[in-house]
Amino acid sequence: MKTAVEKPAKSGNPLTGARRGFGRAMDRVRDRWADAPWWQRWTVYVLLIGLALILPSDFFASFMSPHTHWPSLLFNPIGVYILLAVGLNIVVGHAGLLDLGFVAFYAIGAYNMALIGTKFGWNFWAILPIGILMTAVSGIILGAPTLRLRGDYLAIVTLGFGEIVRIIAENTDAIGASRGITNIPHPPNMFGLEFLLDPLPYYYLLVGVVVAVIIFARRLERSRVGRAWTAIREDEDAAEIMGVPTFKFKLLAFFIGAMIGGLTGVVWASKVIAIQPANFPFILSATILAAVVLGGSGNLPGVMVGAFLIAWLPERFRGLADYRILAFGAALVIMMALRPEGLLPSRQRKAELSEGSGTEASAEVGK
After folding, report:
1. Handedness of CA 332, 300, 26, 48 (dihedral sign)
2. Could you state, in order of their start, the residue ranges of all structural domains in the chain?
3. DSSP 12
4. CA pair distance 310, 315, nearest whole angstrom
5. H or E stretch at 290
6. 329/322 Cα distance (integer angstroms)
7. Contact (CB, 8 A) for 33 and 300
8. Beta bridge partners of residue 275, listed in sequence order
C-alpha cells in the first residue's frame, strides 16, 4: 500500500522564500561543480588564475574600487584575508576547533620578517622558511597544552594567546615595543618585478603563494589527514573510539594553520616597511573567522569568497562616508539571513549543520 508523501507547507514569509530560492540556486552550482569532469575543473582553474592576473587592470578598478587604489586593495586586505582564511579554515572548518587567536601566528610571522631582516640583513627568501617554521612551532606550543580542551574553553585559551603575543610585543624593547619595527627590507627584484612601493609585484607574489597554499590544502583535505579531521569535527569521542589519534591530528591542524598564518605575516611585513603591535588586534581574528563562516566553513572556494567579500565590501562602500560600516553590516546580515550555513558550504558540512535542525532543514536538504 502506497502512502502519500506529505509535502512541506509553503511559508508565506518572503524572507524564507528568498532564502530557499537563493539556497537552491547556490546548491545547484555547488553540486554541478562537485560532479564536473576533471577537464572542466582544470579549465575553470586556469581561467580563474588568468582572471587573478588581470584583475589589477583599470577595467576592473573603475567599478570594483572607485574610491580606493585597486592594486593596493587587492594585496591588502583582500589577498591577505584570503590567505589567512584558508589557514584558519584548516583549524575551524576541517578540524572543528574554534580558534579566536589566529592573528597571533600572523603577528609572529611578520615580526620574524621584520626582526631578522633589520638585525641581520637577510633577504626575504631566506627569512620566509624561518618565519613559517617559527609560527609552526608556536602552533605546537599553543596546541600541546590546550587541545585537551573543547568548545568555549578552547576558544577562550586561543583568544588569550592572541592577546599575550600582542602585549608581549607592545612591552618588549628588543622588538621595538609600541613603536614597532621600521625599515623592513623588501623582497629582491625578480622576473622584471621591482619590489619597492608598487603594490602590483606584491600582489602577483601573493597570487603565487595563494595558489600553492590552495593546492596544499586540497591535497590535505582529500588525504587520510583530511578524513581524520572530518571525523574529529563530526564527533571527537566516536573518532577516538574508532582508533583515530585525535590529539595528534588536532595538533597537526594547529601546526599547519600556524604555518599559513606565519607565511601571510612574512609576505605582508615585506610590503608595509613598518609594523606595530596595533596591527594585530583581536578584531582581525574575529574578522577572518567571520569570513570563514560567511563563505561556508570547511569548503575552500566558499571560504575564499567569504574572505573576498569581507575585505572588499567596506572599501566598495567607502563613498558612503560614515555610513559605510552600517551598509557593510547590513550586507552581511542579509547574506547570512539568506544563507545561514554559508554562501558555498560543502555537501558534507551542510548535511552536518542541517542534521537535527527540524523538518524544514530536512525538507530543504532533500530537495
Report:
1. positive
2. 67-224+253-349
3. -
4. 10
5. helix 282-295
6. 13
7. no
8. 181
- Do residues 93 and 260 touch, judged by C-beta distance below 8 A? no
Question: How far is C-alpha 148 from the chain's CA centre?
Answer: 24
Q: CA 22, CA 18: separation in Å to the nearest integer? A: 6
Q: How far apart are CA 101 and CA 159, in angstroms?
A: 4
Question: Whole-model pTM?
Answer: 0.88
Q: Where are the alpha helices (DSSP H) in 80-198?
A: 80-89, 103-119, 124-146, 151-171
CA separation for the pair 47, 55 (Å, rounded) = 12
* Cα four-point dihedral sign 287, 290, 296, 302: negative
- Digit-by-digit pLDDT tens for the chain (367 residues) are 444 444 444 555 666 776 677 667 777 777 777 777 888 888 988 999 999 999 999 999 988 988 889 999 999 999 999 999 999 999 999 999 999 999 999 999 999 999 999 999 899 999 999 999 999 999 999 888 888 888 889 999 999 999 999 999 999 999 999 999 999 998 988 766 777 778 899 999 999 999 999 999 999 998 999 999 999 998 899 999 989 999 999 999 999 999 999 999 999 999 998 999 999 999 999 999 999 999 888 889 889 999 999 999 888 888 787 788 888 888 888 887 777 778 877 766 666 666 644 433 333 333 4
Query: CB atoms < 10 A from the CB of 331, how many?
Result: 15
CA–CA distance, 163 with 241 (Å, rounded to integer): 35
Residue of 99, 153, 110 lying closest to 289 (CA atoms): 99
- 78 neighbors 311 (Cβ within 8 angstroms): yes
CA distance 228 to 95: 8
